[in-house]
């Protein structure tokens, strides 16, 4: 039987066009839905990853949480977010090693820098002393008994044992919110604002042992270049103080032959494996005599401490020691960051070299002396070891004068005032009457100057920038016999040119 093969029905053009349109629309819709699904799943995947990371962080450390990266910021903002950048005076506790026998005299130094209601700390003594709340002094406590500890150094005193435990005993008090323990002697003067500035550079959550060495090369050899000298003061971060407190009593018993408290601290730091972080503003002052050379050419670093005030000459030679400290800290009230910082400029017309140590002294010298030479301390002082020559210091130094006619004329800070409308500090420096040789140079003598006026804009953020000396400039003075100097941050292209 033959099969009948049917022909396909003819397709209408209108129906074909509708079918094609429907097919394309359907494909487009499927594509769009599929794309949305991919995007949704991708976002969901990111959210899952973040949630997983949050869970992992939480399980690892219950006190931590995931945070998105910070937005872009300026240099100042980045500094503010450093680990220690928000460190303030309230985060610091001072442990002061004192002597009851010397208390009546030494407490006068403490009064000058202590800030009642702001600073926190304890003076540790061997016996009770009488104090009054009106004096504005820190709390006093009696050190723990160390009579069972061996001490065999023939040249030292057993008091070194109790003083070496000042940080640990201060730690045991259990004060709240402590980031740093700062130790010093009862004749150590702290520039508190600069203590805060220096410690703000470091992460207080890490192990830090911060301080300075002696000015005497022989002292550092005898003790250690790795040791922070206690009189100059040093700082220990909270977690390091916590570890030190655990081991210290056993540690110091292993070193009965050491001389002082600071080398016992360093011996324990060596056992903990923590090196000294050196800061140039901590000053032991193992010297005798006049500090003009050192303070007149201070390193480009914040002034943090002054020590051995009973040994050195008064900072201002026409005042007593305590009054000198009070006078110096008067300038610190207006610009503590710039205290003692050196500036160098030249009076080309009169052929003078001028060195300004802000808040302290101005020195005018006949002739042109390079900044390279002026930034080296003049040896106005004597070494801790009699007979030691200039090679016995830990820094470069220079002769006070090269020629008799170049003996500097010194003007010491007399008064400081602040003009809040101009935001400017004005310091008046008076000449120190001392003999000068007869000089037949044709240049004008600085003895014609009876006062120096130094103008300066406060700069509390100077140590957030790279270290650099300020620039100074001679400006016209209305009164004859007065020298007027403007000290400021150097402008672009400005320098201490000859």
UniProtKB/TrEMBL annotation:
The chain crosses the membrane at residues 20-40. Gene3D superfamilies: 3.90.550.50. Keywords: Membrane, Transmembrane, Transmembrane helix. It holds the Pfam family DUF604. Residues 54-75 are annotated as: Disordered. This is Glycosyltransferase. It comes from Lithospermum erythrorhizon (Purple gromwell).
């Amino acid at each position: 039987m033959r099969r009948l093969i049917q022909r396909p029905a003819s397709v209408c053009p209108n129906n074909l066009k509708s079918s094609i349109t429907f097919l394309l629309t359907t494909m487009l819709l499927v594509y769009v839905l599929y794309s949305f699904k991919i995007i949704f799943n991708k976002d969901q995947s990111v959210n899952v990853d973040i949630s997983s990371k949050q869970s992992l962080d939480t399980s690892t450390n219950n006190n931590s949480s995931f945070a998105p990266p910070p937005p872009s910021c300026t240099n100042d903002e980045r500094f503010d977010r450093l680990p220690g950048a928000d460190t303030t005076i309230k985060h610091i506790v001072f442990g002061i090693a004192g002597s009851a026998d010397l208390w009546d005299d030494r407490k006068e130094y403490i009064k000058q820098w202590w800030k009642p209601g702001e600073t926190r700390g304890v003076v540790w003594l061997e016996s009770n002393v009488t104090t009054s709340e009106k004096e504005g002094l820190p709390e006093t406590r009696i050190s723990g008994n160390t009579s069972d500890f061996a001490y065999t150094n023939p040249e030292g005193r057993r008091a070194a044992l109790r003083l070496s435990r000042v940080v640990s005993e201060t730690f045991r008090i259990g004060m709240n919110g402590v980031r740093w323990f700062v130790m010093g002697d009862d004749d150590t003067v702290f520039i508190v604002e600069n203590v805060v500035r220096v410690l703000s550079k470091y992460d207080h959550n890490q192990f830090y042992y911060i301080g300075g060495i002696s000015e005497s090369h022989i002292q550092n050899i005898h003790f250690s270049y790795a040791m922070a000298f206690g009189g100059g003061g040093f700082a220990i971060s909270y977690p390091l103080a916590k570890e030190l407190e655990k081991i210290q009593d056993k540690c110091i018993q292993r070193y009965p032959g050491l001389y002082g408290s600071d080398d016992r601290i360093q011996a324990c730091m060596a056992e903990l494996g923590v090196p000294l972080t050196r800061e140039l503003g901590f000053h032991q002052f193992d010297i005798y005599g006049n500090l003009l050379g050192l303070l007149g050419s201070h390193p480009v670093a914040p002034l943090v401490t002054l020590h051995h005030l009973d040994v050195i000459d008064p900072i201002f030679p026409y005042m007593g020691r305590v009054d000198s400290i009070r006078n110096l800290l008067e300038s610190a009230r207006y610009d503590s960051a710039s205290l003692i910082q050196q500036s160098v400029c030249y009076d080309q017309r009169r052929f003078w070299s001028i060195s300004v140590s802000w808040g302290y002294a101005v020195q005018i010298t006949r002739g042109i002396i390079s900044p390279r030479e002026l930034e080296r301390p003049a040896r106005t002082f004597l070494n801790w070891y009699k007979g030691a020559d200039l090679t016995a210091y830990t820094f470069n130094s220079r002769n006070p004068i090269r020629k008799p006619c170049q003996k500097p004329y010194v003007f010491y800070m007399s008064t400081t005032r602040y003009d809040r409308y101009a935001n400017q500090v004005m310091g008046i420096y008076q000449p120190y009457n001392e003999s000068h040789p007869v000089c037949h140079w044709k240049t004008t003598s600085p003895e014609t100057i009876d006062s120096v006026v130094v103008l300066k804009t406060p700069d509390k953020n100077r140590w957030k920038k790279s270290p650099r000396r300020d620039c100074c400039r001679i400006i016209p003075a209305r009164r004859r016999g007065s020298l007027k100097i403007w000290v400021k941050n150097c402008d672009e292209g400005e320098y201490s040119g000859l």
